[in-house]
Please model this.
Amino acid sequence: MEKFYQDYCLLCGKCLEVCPVFNVTQFEEYSPRAKAFVYSQIQKKGLDIKNVDRILGNCVGCLRCYEVCTQGIDIPDKVANIRSLSPNFRRWLYLKIVKHLPELSPLIKNGFKIKDIIPHLKKIKQLGNFFENRDKKGLFKIKVFKNKKQKQRAVIFGGCVGTYLKKNWLEAASNIAGLFYNVEGILKWECCGYPMFFAGDIKGAREVFNSNVKLWQQLGNPKILVFCATCWSYLRKNASLIEDETLRDDWLSSLTYMTELIANIESIEITENSHKFLFHKPCHLDDKLHKSFLEFLDNFKIKYRSLSDCCGFGGCTRLENPRLCDILGERFWENVAKDEIIVSGCSGCIMQFCLTGDFKRVYHWLELFEF
Ligand code: SF4
Ligand code: SF4
Model:
């Protein structure tokens, strides 16, 4: 028999402390444990989903509650399950965008012309900013020299954004990966699945995950190098779908977030560095992996500040509840000094920073490297 939230929640409140939505709204009903409670009431007492959709929609899927819960209660998973039972237009639209990103990417790059048609989606037009090349004048440039290491085979998982929208990221990732690995060509991976999963398309998310595993097996199980924290986190989390234990372990050990490589760079030349840097830790990234990048900066005496506040992007929540995402984004920018450059390692966070603040000051760490 399935255990319900009340059966094992300790009411410790740890999830409340870390939940960005609770912190910004201070509404107990939007807290992680309230969401889990609502979910259990739906399961146990057949509570009408339509009446609770608003509560569950107040979640940006940051996974912070899951990370701290000693009882292992996976609230974003429950939110996704409810969403799967309660489709709505905005989720449907979001899933269409994710699914058709390859065809839509040229349109998005030029900026949507939809503000006259659907006013509440006008934020998406701002996504055009995300594709503008940043002015790198005055930004530090790191010239990297090749390490003398034996090269194994590796492939790069660019995620939807890297593959279809920000090809300069993919290029930079290939250059960095080439220092350590024999990198195979650009591959047509499917979406990592998290945007679909969190929008309630659980079946679709499983399908794309399985097809990515199949592609990896066809290539002979090479290392998979990832530079988006959300892709990395979900590709790991979903390993539980791989039934064969040896294959699962192999999959997990092949997944590498690329800051692990950066930490091994032995020689760089810094040509410019006139800015203050704020290195953002995405919610979906392991502390250890974030620190490995900071150690690299320390090694080369590059000054920075680190911040781990949630960006508030939220995947489909961006369309469902844009005001909430805007408030969280604005909250983030309140902690950024006017002359700071934000550097992050997650496609969603970077998009959100571009949507809610000065996009000219937002970079993926990949963009700092020059070869
Ligand atoms: S995933 Fe994040 S936003 Fe959603 S309930 Fe958990 S801590 Fe709150
Ligand atoms: S962290 Fe887990 S155990 Fe503690 S209140 Fe939240 S859901 Fe319950």
Summary: The pocket of iron/sulfur cluster (ligand 2) is lined by residues 9-15, 32-33, 36, 68-69, 71, 73 (CB under 6 Å). The mean pLDDT is 85. Residues 202-218 form the longest helix (17 residues).
